[in-house]
Amino acid sequence: MSKIGKRTDYIGWDEYFMGIALLSAMRSKDPSTQVGACIVNRDRKIVGVGYNGFPKGCDDDLFPWDREGAFLETKYPFVCHAELNAILNSISRDLSDASIYVALFPCNECAKAIVQSGIREVIYLDDKYADTDAVRASRLMFTHSGVNCRQLTPSHKQITLDLTLPQG
User: Fold this and answer.
1) 9 and 149 in contact (C-beta within 8 Å)?
2) Is 47 helix (H, G, I), strand (E, B) or coil?
3) Closest to 138 measured CA to CA, from 117, 113, 158, 167
4) Could you report the per-residue pLDDT of 117-158, keeping only the tens digit for each?
5) Does residue 165 come out as left (phi exceeding 0), alpha (psi in the -120 to 50 range) or beta?
6) DSSP letters of 65-133?
7) Span 107-127, pLDDT tens digits
8) Collapsing DSSP states into helix, strand and coil, what is residue 138?
9) Other C-beta atoms within 10 Å of 116: how many?
10) Catalytic residue list
11) In what order do the strands lie in the sheet with 121-126?
């Protein structure tokens, strides 16, 4: 009698939730930087997702996407980061002990929201702005408030999503 075993090539929890964050980033209309975030509670249930973009009601065809120029002619005073959007879009106001998965290490403004919301862990892929004052400030706030940060080293470098139903 042949006995079929379970699949062994499935992805782990960290890669699953980071995959949701990266998929969310694909909703961003920002031409230079797409970031997504996924908040997971202690029961491994997704309670919030977000991506970087303009606030509700701000037409993304009327607001600037530029990175350089006069402050009000750039995206920076207007774009809401993925982490903040995930917190604001969460289905629960109780994010105590939750984790947030995000591609880039959070800036200081997002760090404030993460700490204030009760999120206790930040899992990120890249820390390319580590030498900036904004990220240094984030690290200080996370350290002093007890938020654990860890960089994810995925065991799968690529996950392919096929939007057709599997045959079989």
Assistant:
1) no
2) strand
3) 113
4) 999 999 999 999 999 999 999 999 999 999 999 999 988 788
5) beta
6) --SSSSGGGSSTTTPBPHHHHHHHT-S-S--TT-EEEEEEPPPHHHHHHHHHHT--EEEEEE-TTTTSH
7) 999 999 999 999 999 999 999
8) helix
9) 12
10) 83
11) 46-51, 36-40, 99-104, 121-126, 148-151
- The residue count for the chain: 168
CA nearest to 117, candidates 78, 86, 82? 86
As a whole number of angstroms, the distance between CA 22 and CA 94 comes to 24
Element (H, E) at 151: strand 148-151
Six-digit token string for 106: 């959070």
Cα–Cα nearest to 150, from 26, 17, 52, 11? 17
Structure-token match 């997971």, residue found = 40
Contacts of 19 (CB under 8 A, 6+ apart): 11, 159
| Location of structure tokens 């890669």 | 15
Q: How far apart are CA 18 and CA 102, in angstroms?
A: 7
Q: Is the pLDDT of residue 1 over 70?
A: no
